[in-house]
Amino acid sequence: MSTRSTKKSSSRGTKDAKPKAKSSRGSSKSPFKVKDRVVYPHHGAAIIKGKEKREVDGEKVDYFVIEAVTNPLTLRIPVEKAAELGLRPVISKNAARKVFAVLKEDPVDADATWARWFKLLQDKMASGDIYEVASVVRDLTYAQQSKPLGPALKRMLAKARLILTSELQLALDIDEESSIKRLDRALAHLEVSDEEEE
Asked: In 3D, which of 64, 45, 44 has the Cα closest to residue 53?
């Protein structure tokens, strides 16, 4: 959803979400505020750094200025459409524990039909649901141990790990390195034995 509503606005790593034709005049109501820790689908955890007004179709529209946590990316999202575009609060510490529980569950094997399996993984990534993203990380981590992943799945795994570790970083108040280590520890049970490979 978010990938369809963003476009590159400059060469400095910024992306703008486009508002719909009808935008609000003046200030816009939103469940979010400046300094909130949030998650934006496909980009991971971020912090709302400020608000600014931009003219769109002759009207002034309020935008949130959001900075990603783990990569040099600035996003601008219409305040009025933030929730609709998938912006949500960072999960709680209790929810983070449930994420690790998902990672420790038995992996789901790849579907015999690669295209169908790839589409299922894409849908999970687009959902913005942290538990779905965790299941993508788990299943692709397991799959790559028995057979090398193709370029598309490698990119998906890298992106899913980034999204997951960035949110865990904020949810648990730890640094990026600690978040990655905790993720890898949770995935350690997925190692494929020699018997399984034969």
From this structure: 64
Tokens representing 130?
């942290």
In contact, 45 and 169? CB cutoff 8 Å: yes
Residues in the chain with pLDDT values less than 50: 1-12, 21-27, 194-198
Q: What is the pLDDT of residue 167?
A: 95
β pairing state of 6-8 and 14-17: antiparallel
- What's the pLDDT at 146? 81
Which tokens is 49 given? 């750094």
Angle between helices 93-103 and 151-171 (to 10 degrees): 150
Q: Are 92 and 171 in contact (CB under 8 A)?
A: yes
Would you say the C-alpha torsion 104, 165, 8, 66 has a positive or negative sign? positive
Q: Which residues pair with 40 in a beta bridge?
A: 44
**CA 76 from centre of chain:** 16
Give the predicted TM-score (pTM) of the model: 0.77
- What tens digit of pLDDT does each residue of 72-97 get? 889 999 999 999 988 999 999 999 99
